[in-house]
Design a protein that fits this description.
With about 500 residues, the chain is an all-alpha fold. It has 17 helices and no strands. Helix content is about 80%, strand content about 0%. The longest helix has about 45 residues. It is globular and about 70 Å long.
Length: about 500
Amino acid sequence: MRPRPDPTPDSGEDLDAAGSRRSAWLLIAVAGGVFIAADDQTSVVTVLPALIPDIGLAVDDFFLASWVINGYLLGYIVALPIVGRIADARGHGRVYAASLGVFMLGSALVAAAPDFWFLVVARGLQAVGGGAVVPVAMAIVVTQTPPERRALGLGAIAAASEAGALVGPLWGGLITELLGWRWMFWLNIPMSLPVLGAVWWLARNERAEGRIDWPGAALLAAALAALTIAIADDPIAPRPWAITAQLLVFTGVATLFFALRQRSLEEPMLRLGMFASKPVSSAAVMSVLVGAGLITALISVPLFVNLVLVERPIDGGFTLLRFTAAVPVGALVGGWVTGRIGPRLPAAVGVLLGAVCFAGLLPWDEVLPEVWRTTPLVVGGFGFGLLIAPLGVAVLSHVREEERAVAASWLTLARMGGMLVGTGLLTSHGLGRFYARAGSIEFGSPEFAELVTEAQVSTFHEIWVVAAAVLALTTALAWWLGSERASEWWAAR
């Protein structure tokens, strides 16, 4: 028998194997960048106590200090949809690498910041790069991997993001303790550089051509910036309501002009017909509601531990760790399951587990057994993680190839919007309900401390009941994640 000849260098078998290896390495590289950006986003929480006095702020100037975070949030929200469109028009890999470069530049400027406002602007620039990394990475996964592996790839990206967010506070605290807070930002550069080089090399043959609607981008940026500033207000010394009203009116006018402009262009920043697909619109609405639920858990759980159980802040962090550590596990499982049975069932189960989590928090009281401290949080974290890949698959499988990055950006923006709304409702409604209850308590009475604690517990329970109910109702939206039907009116736009 004659020996079988080796396959030729350009055989289909070799090309498929080479393409598969390249896709795997590209996934590893972009997941690494996602991890670094997510790590930076949350590590600043543990850096703030050392950062505030070093840049000339008073220790009790909490609202100004919050702009270290708000500046990042502003840059993140404004950049998301715009960079998504640029990536679709100029190439996902190249824009991912460029975004990582902007993130590195912003990190260097933050590390070298001589004063507070310089640092806030530098954080905004850092967010423009870091905020673009996740949606562009999602578009790269969907474009560069075969359909049967897309859900697992999206799950891996989600797991990298959540793992980075989980490690961030620990990393920030460690580096600040050993080297000082500025080194946390300096170290972003050598960590990001290999990722940038790898993505640039692996995506070097990428081809993409398209127009970018810069006037539309400016209108969208102005609308998102005004909305973010309107929501971020000092709770102790709030601005006059007329200024907030003007910001909201400006947001509405800019959004209207943006929408009218998009309908008149052949290559718009955002094709409104994209939302004609029921999977896309359902996933967007679910992302808003899930974002509101997620921020409710992230804020209320450590607050309950600190205020009601009267434990140390670090105990609140370790309690929340039960929730956040389960999110990346759920994200990987969600990607694996979605790749086999589709997005509908894992999304429904994920939202339902989130509702079960909040229902499981209702027995929390002044005395909290360990089993009740742990079980609902692990269940909820796993459920919120389980949701990420199904929502991404539902959107990215039902949009055109040339709008995948912008679609992923809007999906992420929807979740961020839900988190902003959730934060606003927690501070306004939650505090309002507590003050209404506490106002009826006679100061100095023997039961004063006990009654205040009861008011706190009642307020937390009320918040958790609402969150559980909203998430339970959200489960119904999962049915449309696999639907192909579209509104003819929207599809034509």
